[in-house]
Amino acid sequence: MASASTARRFKVGIDVGGTFTDFFVREAARAPVIHKVLSTPADPSTGVLAGLRELAGALEKPLDLATFLADTEVIVHGTTVTTNATLTRRGAKTGLITTAGVRDALEMRRGIREERYNNRYTNVAPVVPRYLRVGVKGRLDRHGQTVEPLKLDDVREAIALFKKEDVRAVAICFMNAFANPAHEAEAAALVRKELPGAFLTTSTDLLPAIRFYDRVSTTALNAYVGPILDHYLAQLQKRLREAGFAGALLIMQSNGGVMTPEVARKSPALTLLSGPAGGPIAGLAAAKPHGKECCIVVDMGGTSFEAALVEKTPVVIKEGEIDRLRCALPMLGIHTIGAGGGSIGWIDQGGLLRMGPHSAGATPGPACYGQGGELPTTTDANLVLGYLSPDFFSGGRIKLAAKAAREAIAAKIAKPLGMSVEQAAAGMYRVACTNMAQGVRAVTIERGSDPREFPLVVAGGAGPLHSCVICNDLDIALQIVPRESSVLCASGMLMGDLRHDFVRTFVDRLPDPRWGKLNALIAEMIGSGDRTLGSENIAPGKRRHAVTLDCRYLKQYHEVSFAVPLAAIEKRDAKAILRLFHDEHNRLFGYALEQEGTPVEIVNVRVQSIGVTDKHEALGQKFAGADAAAARKGGRSAYVFENEKFATIPVFDGHRLQHGNRIAGPALVETVTTTAFISASYDAVIDKFGSLLMYRKGREDLVRNALEPAS
């Protein structure tokens, strides 16, 4: 144990992915430390502890695990436990208690077929099977008034069924409960008494908002993943404590904030996008030194590819889906597809080459890992194309088998398509990049933004190998590859504040709503936020509260969410609020109905309570000039896609590149945790924070502040 006088204070971000677990360590006045280990899907906490042990020994002044953890003040952890449990349908056996007559709403959803012209397209299977969805008598009207008392005998019958079926989690969601939680509270009290060991979720605790399907789906999801996350966090906390950690453990939320394990264990659905949520925060931090308040952030790991749009702050959506299951909790607008280094190449029935969404994962992994994998993956193609060094993957810790990669591609892709292994590998690479470019379009063009107007911040161990093709497809002129690119999500976790979202349904019309009731609802939610932040030891001076309204033109189905200054509500300034709504509606859809005098209706009121956390400032480098010769390692034959042929191109050591060093494409930049491919269409320069800026040839104006010493 380090003494008080010699103790070092560390902050650690951990992102557990499907293939790799990423670590990012901050220490005041020192450069950050980056580390990656293979994930352990059977028990992610095993990989976390193993990685922390390796990390402690990899510091500039190595420490043993106990000393390192004793000197660690905070660990921020992003987890895919709930995501994977949902995707693989390995959540807890769950029962649903709901209003009689509507138990099938979970399966019928909104009654809209996602692929309306596909007659064979079936609804996704609910996480709660029909026989465990029990309707009970009792009804509230839309104002929360009792139409029919809750029949507790029906609730008892449901509990008896759940006991018989060994149900581990229970969800309670009644019609119109958002207006009055009394019936749900009665049912919950009985469940706690009769099934004390079950994980219990009521919709009024989790999401007291209008729209029954959204509410019942979110409540069922929360219950379904609850026991899984509860077990994992309990195990992780126990192992960390036994290893000597006495600091604060925080869990990343889907909305880009962090929370305590206690909050996460109560509302596990808040972690469904926990893993990638740190990326947009860190991406914006990398873009700001270059005068950019907006950017597109992409992260390509071993299993998936995430894309997100950041416009001054990460874009937050109030509802989303995970594997076609609705989750109506606020989350970052991250689009995920199955495109990673482990994505498997295959040929469909029409004879077309496809990449993913299935992945080789960490085990057995790509064929070139030499762990028994026999299917060709994106990583195998990158190795054949010369983008990866077989002797320097993961800094040389993992030796790649080029022969195995070639054999897998030959057997599964090249021979069936009648082409060479190199041609097949180039095709695999191109298809993977096209898939990812489409993912970027989903968060930009499909949401009304032009990708050409934003720099692309590139993250993930595999991202910088593919970003030039993606940018060529989308006509993006500037890419930013942060120094911590390979662990960007883990680094962003140390930049997040504590965030808690509250929502109440309040249906009324502007310009003359019930102002007293509106202010009372907001005050109630701010009070809840203050109490939650107080329990997390956030001082009053570091608490912030942001108000958002969900409004729509009368008779519209969808609402528009927009931030409203609290002062405008307190002053009853309906004109200012309406102006904000019309402008946001026009921005999103290209029109507003202000001139027509169409009435505007408030539907929901939201409050986000923020607890500001302390952050380390990034250390800048001195300008070292344009010459990068000192960092050159040699050359390697690699495929240049603009010319569609192989050429010997220079290879640089990314750890030796300094601020101001310039590289002409095509070239490769290798670090221990990632490799960047600068294509023939781009040049690159290193900025003062160690980021690699790749810019379209001739567009030095985009990186002027990195090309010259600071004045």
Write the layout of secondary structure elements.
Blueprint: E1 10-16, E2 20-27, E3 33-38, H1 44-57, H2 65-70, E4 72-78, H3 81-87, E5 94-99, H4 105-108, E6 133-136, E7 139-140, E8 146-148, H5 152-164, E9 169-173, H6 182-194, E10 199-202, H7 203-206, H8 212-243, E11 248-252, E12 258-259, H9 261-266, H10 278-287, E13 294-300, E14 305-311, E15 313-314, E16 316-317, E17 320-322, E18 325-327, E19 331-332, E20 334-337, E21 343-347, E22 353-359, H11 378-384, H12 402-417, H13 421-443, E23 456-459, H14 463-474, E24 478-481, H15 488-493, E25 498-510, H16 515-535, E26 543-553, E27 560-564, H17 566-570, H18 574-589, E28 600-611, E29 632-640, E30 645-653, E31 662-664, E32 667-670, E33 675-678, E34 682-686, E35 692-696, H19 704-707
Parallel strand pairs: 1-4, 4-11, 5-6, 5-9, 9-10, 13-23, 23-24, 30-32
Antiparallel strand pairs: 1-2, 2-3, 7-8, 11-12, 13-14, 14-15, 14-20, 16-19, 17-18, 21-22, 24-35, 25-28, 26-27, 26-28, 29-30, 31-34, 32-33, 34-35
Helix pairs in contact: 3-8, 5-6, 11-12, 11-13, 12-13, 13-14
